[in-house]
Amino acid sequence: xxxxxxxxxxxxxxxxxxxxxxxxxxxxxxxxxxxxxxxxxxxxxxxxxxxxxxxxxxxxxxxxxxxxxxxxxxxxxxxxxxxxxxxxxxxxxxxxxxxxxxxxxxxxxxxxxxxxxxxxxxxxxxxxxxxxxxxxxxxxxxxxxxxxxxxxxxxxxxxxxxxxxxxxxxxxxxxxxxxxxxxxxxxxxxxx
Length: 192
Known about the structure:
Arc Repressor Mutant, subunit A; 0% strand
């Protein structure tokens, strides 16, 4: 980050190499669309470069970058929802899987991912961000708190409510997945 603050573009290149995959994972899971996620990640690095002088040493670089990406993703989700409401679209469509080229295990994994992507639509933007960062990406509660910009207790509350909503939606919309689902097996108690 110090190299970035000295306007060294090579530092940005190195940062892009190190952080792109993780940022893509978070943005794709939040948005449900890899192309939109790529755009978010590109804009994230543009913002990092534009705001490099505002970075403070007391901050974690990882948290700062993920916070930028998460905020951009939340803004994108909100804009998408406004567009969808304006156009009176009922929901988003998910890509079909070419079952002839996939093994049974890959099909089952993709099916579970599609179900999860459909279910996260019931969550608010903050709940979705917290759920993806904590339950799927594995960030600890403190990191999620810093990335999303809220208290640890608020992160825990968002996660608890998100899991409860997802469990309820799963039971209603996809009852065949409800028994023993990954959502049900997660502990409600968080690290702190």
